[in-house]
## 1
Amino acid sequence: MIFNNSCNVFEQIANNYIKMIESGAIKNGEYLPSCRDLAKNLGINPNTVQKAYTLLEEKGYVTKVLKKGVYVSYNKINNPLNDFKLEVKKYKDDGYKKEELFEVINEVFGE
């Protein structure tokens, strides 16, 4: 990545990721590099990458998961079921069993 003086470095990083996400080069659900790894690769401060990831999260392109990382959560069509699917994936990644999640869903629906 070549940085220019047109805007802040963190904005350039975020804009680059936005282009890759919107083009499909980076798919929904994929994890982004850690702040430390990306900063090292780009030769910049990790705080700059953190700012870029925060901006991406504010714009709805990624979701930060504590102790897991940052992953793409962008949907061209704002479909609540896509958001639900990503949430379920997080619970699965955290070790919850399918039956436990079904139990919660059944409880919500009163079944």
Note: The first helix runs from residue 9 to 23.
## 2
Amino acid sequence: MIRPARVVVLASTALVAVAALAACSSTTSDQASSSASAVVGGNQVLPPVMVEPGQTTATAKVGDTIVIKADDPAATTISTTTPDLVELTQGSNDGSAVFNPGAKALAAGTAVINVAPPGADAYDVTVTITE
């Protein structure tokens, strides 16, 4: 025969175990949803807008970083006729790392970035920048 006190202890233990598992699953979910951004110096930093080779359109927000992925980043050059909307950074190779060319979205509007890969046709990436 099971005593009532023992039933209460077993039920309480089961309830605590379920609550602990529920807490773990919500923590894991919270961590997964926050992995898309990071906190640096108390400010949330969003991931960059990635532009694949040959991609001709992209969308960014003011303040976003735009990365132009290239097969040969250091030899690929970029230019723009809208420097008031995007600040460009050329690709480079400092000997220890290779950096893709990119841009920072400065203001709302439509920016055009011309991408000139070595040995291939240049193409334009039209970036729609929102507030």
Note: The first strand starts at residue 38 and ends at 40.
## 3
Amino acid sequence: MDITSYLPPLQATLNAISACLIVAAYVFIRKGDKRAHKICMVSALVVSTLFLVSYLYYHSQVGYMPFSGQGFIRPIYFLILFSHIILAVVILPMIVLTVTFALRDRIALHQRITRWTLPLWLYVSVTGVLIYLFGFHLYPPQI
């Protein structure tokens, strides 16, 4: 059974779940609920890791998928895609540092880097869903 056709919607779902968990974690830490914050952040990390594994597998099997949209939407899509890709690469070491500081109880450093990690991770998660919607539903591949 070939699972590759199921992976793009799974990946979009994982990105959406990750975004929701990040927002929930932010709300919990603002309310002072460290336990719920930690649960949400560990869950977001697990979900994002599952996304990355499935993404790498999918593209190792399928390769490049050209975007079929034309006209005004094309530069918008590529602006979102390129910013998503660049920030996805940038965010990985930032997430590792953020988690490392939290695990080592270096809360001041954790808070300082989280000011950048949270919005970038959220942006990458949300734009991942947008890229899926653009590339598979609004402008499906011409296969």
Note: The chain has a mean pLDDT of 96.
## 4
Amino acid sequence: MSFQEKSTWISLATVFLIYGWYFGTTATELGGNVADIDYQSTMLFTVVAVVVVSVILNVVVVFADPDASDTSDERDRSINRFGEYVGGYVLAAGALLGLGLAMAEIEQFWIANAILLGLVLSELTSGVVKVVAYRRGF
């Protein structure tokens, strides 16, 4: 398994688990008025946690096999490009959803979470496309 594929698996796992925790935690607070939910600090913590955990796990992988991180061929670059291309469409849809909610003057809670959900779905889509390309061929 190449370093790029390992990095993709790390990204998938951290995004799924940490953002899953965020959305699960936030969903439990939806019983009352959403204006009363203090989601900003939790959202910020979650975004920072995804970045920090991903970096730490990638560093661990590099230290475990230092030579593997230096090798990247055309196939790896093509798979990465294709995954990011597909994920970009999902990100654009999420941005349009957030824009639509803002234009409809929906509460900020829903706008912020719709944009974050678009980002999360984009990362998950990109990662799944990359893993499928690695496993089934590109």
Note: The chain has one domain: 3-133.
